[in-house]
Amino acid sequence: MASANKLGRTVTALLAAAATAALLYFGNGLMPLWPLIWFAPLPVLLLALRRSAWQGGLLAFAAWLAGCLNLWHYFRVVGIPRAAWLVYCGATALAFAVCVLLLRGLARRRLFWSAWVALPAGWVSFEFVRNLLWPHGSTACIAYSQLNFLPFLETASLAGPWGMGFVLMLLPAGLALGIDLWMSERKQAWRLLGATSGGLAALLIFGAVRLDVPQGGLETKVGLVASDANGGAPMQRLFENYAARARQLIVQGAQVVVMPEGLGTVLDSSVAQADAIFQPIADQTGAVLVVGMGRIGESGRYDEAHIYAPGTAVRSYDKEHLLPPWETSHFTPGTSRTLIAVPGKAEGQTWAVAICKDLDFTNPARAYGQAGASLMLTPAGDFRVDGFFHGHIAVMRAVEDGFSLVRAARHGLLTVADDRGRIVAEVASGSAPFAMLMATVPAGHSDTLYLLLGDWFGWCTIALLALVLLQLTRTRGTAAK
């Protein structure tokens, strides 16, 4: 009988871990099914509340690590060593296990409200600090699993990815505590479940209302062009091919045309030849062109975007956040912002320029938002397999900082989105020898709470985590049997 009970407990534990791993595997990663991540921690949390600390912690660690196998193929495709996957996913799984044990410890001490916020406070503190120290910024935040859930995505306008991550962990924490207390302390269970559902409902109502309010600003016609099949072509011919497609888009009404990152590399001595291909188009048509290219000069190598506006000298933006190790070993990071005073029909707007990985970080996007940017023009390059995931991370910057997004990526997507996170138009860069996209997008700037206060919620979660840890230490030895 004892052996049967032990087997049953073991099977239950394994099923709980497998359920969390499966929900995480399919609910997060490169192509997430966003509803699943809301419940991913729940099976392990329910088990941890009724098992020993070592069992709960071990199962939480194993479940999260197994769920991260959804990134195994991605790491291999982009050439990242398997050891790096183990370090990254192991650290993330360890952070989750510690947060689960923190919730369990507080619940055992009957500090149910502290237990409720312990998991989200610990998790977001981990994500926020990692974002400050990690060369990939905020890219691994679970908030990015929710980019298709627009009413919830609007939370980013208040508190960035940190507020979204907090709520994503708050729901399963409240459900687990409510279910665990249902038979013994039903009133307390009702309070926790009511607070959890009420807070989520309030955020979703806010999101629905914000989505219903028009963005405002002039409608702007934007053009994007990218090709995945241009390897080996002479640079001059490649630039001329892109210029020809830009003219086509402008004839159709495009006021700005954005091309991908790194179309070619030019020397300081040959920059004028490249500029002579694109600047006349701007001068003759009144449109703006943004072209990504590398530049090698005496002062260093730069990953740049050249901006061609009618009747003005060519300007450039140097990519600030470089992809390690490939870009960091070749390029010098930029340190300045580039804003465009818009000519013609869109006069009075302010457009901004960033490159690809810059939008994995909350800055420089927030700095551009503070400058009143209404349209973010972004040359980019992806790895095909991450076209949806990496391409759409930039959409959260649009929601946070109140601008529309125009992102043209090779080996990825051509994407146009408004400042509510709605995809206005999108096409794969590999859909044609030269994929082209025309779209009309509102280009009005919107002020947001996140724009005003920045990462305020990330710092608040660290303070909240400190408070619950203090409570835990003060009540040491008082855990319920």
Helix and strand run: HHHHHHHHHHEHEEHEEEEEHEHEEEEHH
Total strands: 13
Please give the count of helices: 16
CA distance, first residue to last residue? 24 Å
Rounded to the nearest angstrom, the radius of gyration is: 25 Å
Estimated structural class = alpha/beta
Beta fraction of the residues?
Answer: 15-25%
The biggest sheet amounts to:
7 strands, mixed
Helix amount:
40-55%
- How many independent structural domains? 2
Rough outline: elongated
Q: Any low-confidence stretches, pLDDT <50, length ≥5?
A: none
pLDDT averaged residue by residue? 94
Textual characterization of the structure:
This protein has 481 residues and is an alpha/beta fold. Helices cover 50% and strands 16% of the residues. It has helices at 2-27, 34-37, 42-48, 53-67, 72-77, 82-108, 112-133, 150-153, 156-181, 186-212, 235-251, 271-285, 365-370, 387-401, 449-453, 456-474, and strands spanning 219-226, 256-258, 265-267, 288-297, 300-308, 315-318, 339-341, 350-353, 375-381, 404-410, 413-417, 423-428, 435-442. The longest helix has 27 residues, at 82-108. It is elongated and about 80 Å long. The mean pLDDT is 94.
